[in-house]
Amino acid sequence: MTTPTLTGATCGEACWKAYEDICRCSCGGVNHACLRSQNGQRPDRTSRVKSHAYILYAVANDYRDGVRIQNTINGAAYDAGVAQPYIGYDGTQHGYYPWRPGDDGVPAVRKTATAAQIKTWPELASFRNKPYNSYDAPSTLWLRLDCQGATWLP
Q: Among positive and negative, which fits the CA dihedral 124, 109, 57, 60?
């Protein structure tokens, strides 16, 4: 039996392949040692950016492609009314503005995949035979968890 200890740590490979009985991540024991069972299925990969949880949405070929997809998703969110409120110096809301990549809670976040992620993540397996260059490295696109399944997603 797994003993869950809820923390802010995101669930990943260490939890999915764990041998110990104590789960110390955000899944609360749901995904603990799931890849060790006979019919174990790989759960969705998650990440925490600032104070929000994100789920892996897509893998782009390079930086330019990743930025294009990120801007498409964030633009669609703004058009659907999922927008960042503009708060003035006096603390009152003065309207909304489109999402920018560094905003807290932005619907889509683009991250450059690291060499270690390319080597170990199955989602990035097709990039393993290419020499690593941070500019041409694949981009991982992360979608805020509460935006998952939204009708405005492209």
A: negative
Q: pTM of the entire structure?
A: 0.73
Looking up tokens 């560094």 gives 102
How many Å apart are CA 82 and CA 96, to the nearest integer?
A: 9
Residue 110 has which token pair? Answer: 């683009």
142 touches 57 (CB < 8 A): yes
Q: Please, is 150 exposed, middle or buried when counting C-beta atoms within 10 Å of its C-beta (0-12, 13-18, 19+)?
A: middle
Type and span of the H or E element at 118:
helix 115-120
For the stretch 20-45, pLDDT in tens is: 667 766 666 665 565 556 666 666 77
Q: How far apart are CA 26 and CA 38, in angstroms?
A: 23
> Is 122 strand, coil or helix?
helix
